[in-house]
Amino acid sequence: MNLGSLVGHVTELLLHTQGSAKPVDRLVSAFFHARTYLGSRDRRFISDEVYRVIRNRRYLEALLEEYLEEFPDAAELDLPEKRFLAVYAVSALTLGARTGDDAVPPSLWTTSFPAVKFGDFAAWVTDHKDLPFIDPKTLLGVRESFQDWMVERWKAQVGKELPELLAALNIPGGVTLRVNAIRSSPEECAARLALEGVVTGPARYCPQGLIAEKRFNAQASKTFSEGCYEIQDEGSQIVSILAAPRPGEVVIDGCAGAGGKTLHMAALMVNTGEIVAIDNEPKRLRELEKRSRRAGVRIVRALLKSEMLPDDLLGTADLVLVDAPCSGSGTIRRNPSFKWTLSESLVGHYQEQQAEILAFNARFVKPGGRLVYATCSLFREENDEVIEAFLAKEKGFRLVSLKEPAAKLGITSESETLTLYPHRSHTDGFFLALLTRTVR
Questions:
Q1: Do 298 and 411 belong to one domain?
Q2: Of residues 386, 180, 219, 364, the one with CA closest to residue 277
């Protein structure tokens, strides 16, 4: 497909994402499903460019708005049918790093879209891409495209490392695999994937982790269909490793979802003992059961939360994992739309929900047992503050330091809890706290 047509598809898809409450990845998938004539290379170009616009939205729109303010005669660029084309033009002119056949040359805007007066616009954007018109106090947030309240919170947490953190959150996450030890070894799995044309290398911290050199279709992989691996970020794998489930134990996964960490814990337990996987959604638990069969996991019992009786599971678990619902701010590098859908009030709502979920699941921990609280958030309100409030109220638990077990994986923790910041760990952002129930 010619470049002008590809750009047209980019702007059409951007229009679909505008104001939609659906996750961007689902919108992209539906868009391609309805356009089967697009080849894999075309789909990759379109999706990459759409995600790049979403990731850099504040920066791109700041340039467009300033241009429209300086040149009122260019108001046509603000018309609904032209605005996304203008925003994408700003992206290609300022962020364009494509080379070869996929390059978007500046001349495209005057040759392929003659109905839009892009000539002066393109020159102005190129000259002002360093944002000389932005207040220095907000320049970092505009340049890296984050809401000001996010920037302020993370500055309080990481200080001078803030530019590095924001930059890391803007780098798309790679493809990380967790080899299923029940079915395969990392060496065997890597060799099988190589025969399928997928090149991998060892993960940074996790013994069962592999990192793929580039994206690939896991669903089409025979190695995947035979249960040899799952796609799972290394930060997520670290949570299960530090939770340290042991063979023969009774483990409760209180927010199991579709079971990524459930299956990992089953492998760490060498498929012995029992894992009770609890969730609110029957659909997710059905997916967990399907994944368990593929992975050869025999020790998982799915349990719908609404069907539990008040005294079910009380004081029965050696380990309870609470991988709590959260803002997902630690996964922005994979889900850039979170930059714009998250709000301060939503973070506060999650904090209240997390406190309730943690208290509910803490009842299942037997004396001497462990309670692990985890999120994929980077906001202190959802992490340390939840733990501090819980410990102030629940006197039967104490915090256990994660410094030593994290160090064994090659990770340095500055506090008793662990926060994985992407610019330090090169993983998605995660928080983890380990508590133990006092023996009475």
A1: yes
A2: 364
What's the pLDDT tens digit per position in 323-360? 999 999 999 999 999 999 999 999 999 999 999 999 99
Q: Is 27's pLDDT higher than 70?
A: yes
431 within 8 A of 374, measured Cβ to Cβ = yes
What CATH number is associated with residue 307?
3.40.50.150
Q: What is the DSSP string of 144-155?
A: HT--HHHHHHHH
**132 in any annotated domain:** yes
Q: Give the C-alpha separation, 225 to 199, whole Å.
A: 18
157 within domain boundaries: no
Put simply, whether the predicted model's pTM sits higher than 0.85 gets the answer yes
d(CA 378, CA 421): 7
Each residue's pLDDT tens digit, 80-102: 778 888 888 888 888 864 444 55
Whether 275 and 307 map to the same domain: the answer is: yes
User: Residue 301: beta bridge partners?
Assistant: 276
The boundaries of the domain holding residue 272 are 242-437
